[in-house]
Amino acid sequence: MAEVSVTAPTTARPASLWQLFLAFTSLAMQGFGGVLAVAQKELCERRGWLTQAEFLQLLATAQVLPGPNVCNLSLMIGDRFFGWRGALAALAGMIVAPMAVLLALAWALGHLAQTGPLQANLRGALGGVATVAAGQIIGTVLKLSAPLKDHPLGWPTCAMLAASSFAMMAWLHWPLVWTLLGLGGLTCLYTYGVLRKKARP
């Protein structure tokens, strides 16, 4: 995945490991169905710890690494500010509170399993919230596409590559790993060639 040039790096940063932990705990507790939409707004717009382009770079790296994207993202952001201690604090923030809530819900739903109507209502409510979460993610993706206008390949090429990637996974049902290795690898090579050509006098 090619890097997007960052022209205006951020100066804001978390004041302490505790603030970093609380910030990622807040993200995790708001991210129903996925934390991406909340993370972009919280880290870029509200706290100003990252620019849109910086967030996009870290997200792209998190997606190609093994493991959950959001955990990879928290590790990289924590390490960016406080090294390995920050990485552990950010990851703990993403995991501790949601795990406690999940265990409590699992216990409660287990006791409610014998109450058919109530369980059906709960499933309907969760389905409605999931729909809202999907809308949040779509909105965030559109917002994160803004920095691509400065990408070396240009906006039209980036849009075509994004559409191709979507088609491979949604319509052709290609595994993610082959989409990344195939289309992603070719894109990296092409971007490298474009950058090298621009660097020549």
Notes on the structure:
With 201 residues, the protein is mostly helical. The chain contains seven helices and no strands. Helix 1 packs across helix 4, helix 2 crosses helix 5 and helix 3 packs across helix 4. The N terminus is likely disordered.
Q: Write down the secondary-structure element order.
A: HHHHHHH
Query: What value does the average pLDDT take?
Result: 79
What percentage of residues falls in helices of 4 or more residues? over 70%
Shape: globular
Largest sheet: none
Q: Tell me the strand percentage band.
A: under 5%
Q: Radius of gyration over alpha carbons? A: 20 Å
Number of helices: 7
Q: Identify low-pLDDT runs.
A: 1-8
Structural class: mainly alpha
The N- and C-terminal alpha carbons lie at a distance of 26 Å
| Total E-strand runs | 0
List keywords for this structure.
201 residues, mainly alpha, 75% helix, globular
